[in-house]
């Protein structure tokens, strides 16, 4: 499988939004509903929010298969590495692409700890993270505005 990664540039936010929108509508509508999906896309993936997150140290990467954008991930690597986002087109999930991303992060950045948040109803992703050595550290509820909440697990993987 020819999987590569390329850091996303500021002028590529429209392409990022397009991929995020497809994946979120395909995957999250049944988890959190269409209205919350639209709200979160408009809030998290608007150009100002993306620019702000980059200025605060978050890096975004396209996942490429044969040079086609099939997903993306983002990380913040300070004291602990946070895997802020990991999304692969739903029709390509289950083919080992997420594992390739995790291996890339582990091999290239060699973090002692990786943390992430995942929706508590997102069983497919939770199981993926369990299979890759993550454990639930705690339960958190985040008020994201407009009456919506992110009801998440914080998961952690220790690499030492």
User: Structural class from helices and strands?
Assistant: alpha+beta
Q: What is the radius of gyration?
A: 15 Å
Strand content: 35-45%
Order of helices and strands: EHHHHEEEHEHEE
Low-confidence stretches: none
CATH superfamily: Gcn5-related N-acetyltransferase (GNAT)
Number of folding domains? 1
Count of alpha and pi helical runs = 6
Distance between the termini: 29 Å
Report on the biggest sheet.
Answer: 7 strands, mixed
Instruction: Please give the CATH architecture.
Output: 3-Layer(aba) Sandwich
* CATH overall fold name: Aminopeptidase
Adjacency order of strands in the biggest sheet: 1-2-3-4-5-7-6
CATH class category: Alpha Beta
What does this structure look like?
The protein has a single domain (3-158), classed as Aminopeptidase (3-Layer(aba) Sandwich). By secondary structure, it is α+β, with helices and mostly antiparallel strands. The model has no long low-confidence stretch (mean pLDDT 94). Strands 1-2-3-4-5-7-6 form a seven-stranded mixed β-sheet, with helices on both faces. It is built from six helices and seven strands, in the order βααααβββαβαββ. Helix 1 (13-27) packs antiparallel against helix 3. The radius of gyration is 15 Å and the shape is globular. It has helices spanning 13-27, 29-32, 34-44, 47-55, 97-109, 123-131; strands spanning 3-7, 58-65, 68-77, 81-88, 113-119, 135-145, 148-158. The longest helix has 15 residues, at 13-27.
Note the main attributes of this structure.
6 helices, alpha+beta, seven-stranded mixed beta sheet, 7 strands, globular, 160 residues, single chain, 38% helix, Aminopeptidase
């Amino acid at each position: 499988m020819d999987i590569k990664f390329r850091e996303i540039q500021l002028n590529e936010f429209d392409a990022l939004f397009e991929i995020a929108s497809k994946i979120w509508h395909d995957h999250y509508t049944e988890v959190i509903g269409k209205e919350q999906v639209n709200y979160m896309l408009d809030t998290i993936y608007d150009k100002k929010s993306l620019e702000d997150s980059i200025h605060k140290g978050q890096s975004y990467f396209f996942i490429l298969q044969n040079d086609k954008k099939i997903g993306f991930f983002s990380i913040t690597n300070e004291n602990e590495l946070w895997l802020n986002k990991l999304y692969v087109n739903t029709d390509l999930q289950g083919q080992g692409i997420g594992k390739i991303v995790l291996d890339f992060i582990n091999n290239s950045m060699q973090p002692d700890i990786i943390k992430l948040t995942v929706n508590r109803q997102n069983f497919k992703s939770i199981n993926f993270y369990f299979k890759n050595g993550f454990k639930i550290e705690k339960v958190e509820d985040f008020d994201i505005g407009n009456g919506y909440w992110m009801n998440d697990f914080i998961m952690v993987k220790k690499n030492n």
